[in-house]
Inverse folding.
């Protein structure tokens, strides 16, 4: 009777490790398939299409750098970049400020705190298109609620969606109603700040502003950083609100980058051109991320001190 | 007023009854998703057999081989050329039919008769019958109806041309101008005559006879404002008036409405445009002949009668304009056969050249600068012309080398 000799330990460990890897990848497979089919694959295809003239109907035709050269000479391309930058650099700080202010309010011990939290979060989960249409009504010059309030306080009504000086501000105002996710993230962070820190600061005679600046902000700075990163990424991709509320107008004042990309890709049938735009946007966002991460060393405080953080915020 | 419920199911039933070997599978695409879905279908080379084609895309698709040339089939319809209403030409380009209409959609003016009379103004339909329905009459109407401030504001009209060249063309034609030169190599919408029309169109927004384009961009658009009696008139396609728009108004407002043919412009003519709902055949289909047979049934007298009765179209054949099938379908409290005849026969061809959507956006952005007073008309529309001419040059070159247009 043959007796199977036991495998050497190293071989057995390798087999076990291999089996563990196989099981791991099996669990990952649905995500991996989705990633390669719907993210990596299209990204690779668009990288190639950026160097072609592709109108969707006829096969792509190689044109080298023509799309990028055409973009370099396109005034509306620069205008769309300007509009997007305006929205990002004004909108993201405003969104963070509003989200943080709401989180601070909701972190206080008031009655019905949970109800208030839900109420402030509801606009974020409401369908965005419905919300936009609601705001389009509210911004209406003659019949809108906002101008009704403006008139009530004796000011002249504003053409919120028609005056090119104001349209981007209107869109930023709309974006402030959808900061629920950032607010929840801040709220979670605020609730993790130990009470002892505030108590000892109070004993030392720190006032509210000093406690906020020297305790709250450093303690939630990783979440500020997270919200800033996510906010900038999504702001560079602002699309839906302009597509529905203003269609990029008037006079291109809300022609944001992704809307312009959409016009070329899905309305003008210039997929090669649109792909080139997409890759330029990707490069811009990457650049911002690199700068943001580098800069984060100087202002983001990690309590564990293990995340590559630089100088610690003073405690 | 019109109700179209069940209409298209009945049309599909007609096609299947006439062609027992054909089974129609209908794919309904919401209007807002239409472009991306058609794009996805084209990219995937899977677009069904018969495709709804909006005129803004028809010639782009034709030039790039996404529509079958229907000329070889047209004789099978058994309709003499002279019997086609002008709307048929909207899908005709470079000597070929690329799609055929299943409904006729000339523009007419939908207006609130009750509000007009209450303002002490004459009924436009009566003026029309007396031959006095012209620019002077309509200006007087706008002046008398546009009043109030804030949430009491009432507007006489929607912005003229509804922010698209394919509607603005009406005023440009009426002023003696045109959109393109005859061989379609150059934009002519910046000519002296056309500038007069642009100026007139801008005056509606500047005089506050019409809301700004931004204020029109609300759910329901003009229907929503008309339903609240904040807007008196709107130039609309027949389909919307008959089968769509009017029926979405509240019942009491519906009873106040009437329609009239478009007014006489500077050239003394009632200029009309028409964007038909048309269907083309996708070249990738395995069932090209069957697809054509389905088209033929849709255009047959029996099925057209069904569509007319459901109030989704005016007649697609000149000979039907005086038929009982048509005249009996009309509501005398709302419309009259003579104005419909003027509307249907007044239709003038507007060529939606390839890359039309791109062209229109350029023109509208320039016109917005005029409406906002940022630029003068001559400068702004002139800028648009320069940009559009570049596109037309590219289109001309692409058309010349396109094997599908030979």
């Amino acid at each position: 009777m043959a007796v199977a000799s036991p495998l050497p330990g190293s071989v057995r460990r390798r087999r076990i490790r291999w089996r563990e890897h196989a099981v791991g990848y099996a669990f990952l497979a649905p995500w991996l398939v989705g990633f390669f089919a719907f993210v990596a694959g299209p990204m690779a295809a668009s990288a190639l299409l950026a160097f072609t003239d592709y109108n969707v109907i006829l096969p792509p035709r190689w044109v080298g750098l023509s799309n990028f050269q055409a973009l370099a000479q396109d005034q509306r391309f620069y205008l769309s970049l300007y509009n997007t930058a305006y929205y990002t650099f004004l909108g993201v700080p405003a969104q963070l400020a509003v989200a943080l202010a709401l989180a601070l309010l909701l972190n206080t011990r008031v009655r019905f705190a949970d109800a208030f939290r839900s109420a402030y979060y509801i606009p974020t989960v409401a369908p965005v298109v419905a919300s936009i249409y609601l705001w389009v009504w509210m911004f209406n010059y003659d019949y809108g609620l906002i101008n009704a309030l403006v008139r009530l306080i004796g000011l002249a009504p504003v053409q919120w969606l028609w005056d090119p000086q104001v349209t981007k501000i209107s869109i930023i105002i709309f974006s402030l109603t959808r900061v629920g996710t950032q607010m929840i993230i801040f709220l979670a962070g605020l609730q993790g700040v130990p009470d002892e820190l505030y108590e000892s600061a109070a004993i030392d005679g720190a006032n509210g502003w000093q406690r906020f600046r020297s305790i709250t902000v450093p303690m939630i700075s990783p979440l500020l950083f997270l919200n800033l990163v996510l906010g900038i990424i999504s702001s560079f991709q602002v699309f839906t609100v302009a597509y529905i509320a203003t269609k990029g107008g008037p006079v291109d004042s809300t022609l944001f980058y992704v809307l312009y990309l959409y016009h070329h890709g899905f309305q003008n049938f210039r997929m090669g051109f649109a792909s080139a735009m997409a890759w330029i946007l990707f490069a811009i966002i990457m650049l911002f991320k690199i700068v943001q991460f580098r800069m984060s060393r100087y202002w983001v405080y990690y309590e564990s001190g293990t995340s590559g953080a630089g100088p610690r915020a003073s405690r | 007023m019109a109700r179209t419920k069940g209409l298209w199911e009945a049309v599909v039933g007609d096609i299947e009854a006439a062609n027992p070997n054909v089974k129609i599978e209908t794919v309904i695409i919401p209007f807002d998703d239409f472009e991306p879905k058609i794009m996805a279908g084209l990219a995937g080379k899977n677009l069904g057999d018969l495709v709804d084609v909006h005129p803004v895309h028809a010639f782009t698709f034709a030039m790039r081989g996404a529509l079958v040339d229907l000329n070889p089939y047209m004789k099978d319809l058994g309709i003499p050329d002279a019997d086609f209403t002008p709307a048929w030409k909207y899908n005709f380009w470079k000597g070929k039919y690329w799609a055929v209409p299943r409904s006729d959609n000339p523009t007419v003016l939908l207006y609130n008769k009750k509000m007009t009379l209450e303002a002490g103004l004459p009924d436009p339909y009566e003026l029309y019958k007396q031959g006095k329905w012209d620019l002077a009459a309509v200006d007087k109407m706008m002046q008398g109806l546009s009043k109030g401030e804030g949430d009491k504001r009432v507007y006489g009209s929607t912005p003229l041309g509804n922010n698209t060249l394919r509607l603005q063309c009406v005023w440009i034609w009426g002023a003696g101008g045109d959109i393109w030169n005859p061989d379609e190599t150059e934009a002519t919408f910046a000519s002296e005559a056309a500038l007069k029309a642009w100026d007139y169109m801008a005056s509606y927004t500047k005089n506050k006879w019409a809301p700004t384009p931004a204020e029109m961009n609300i759910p329901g658009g003009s229907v929503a404002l008309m339903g609240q009696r904040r807007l008196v008139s709107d130039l609309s396609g027949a389909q919307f008036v008959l089968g769509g728009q009017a029926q979405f108004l509240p019942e009491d407002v519906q009873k106040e409405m009437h329609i009239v043919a478009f007014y006489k412009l500077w050239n003394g003519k009632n200029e009309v445009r028409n964007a038909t709902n048309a269907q083309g055949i996708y070249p990738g289909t395995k069932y090209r002949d069957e697809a054509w047979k389905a088209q033929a049934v849709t255009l047959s007298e029996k099925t057209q009668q069904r569509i007319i009765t459901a109030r989704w179209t005016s007649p697609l054949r000149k000979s039907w304009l005086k038929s009982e099938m048509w005249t009996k379908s009309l509501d005398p409290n709302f419309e009259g056969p003579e104005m419909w005849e003027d509307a249907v026969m007044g239709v003038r061809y507007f060529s939606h050249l390839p890359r039309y959507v791109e062209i229109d956006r350029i023109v509208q952005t320039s016109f917005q600068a005029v409406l906002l007073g940022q630029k003068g008309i001559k400068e702004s529309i002139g800028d648009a012309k320069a940009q559009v001419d570049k596109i037309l040059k590219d289109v001309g070159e692409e058309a010349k080398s396109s094997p599908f247009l030979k």
Notes: Confidence is low (pLDDT under 50) at residues 307-315 of chain A.
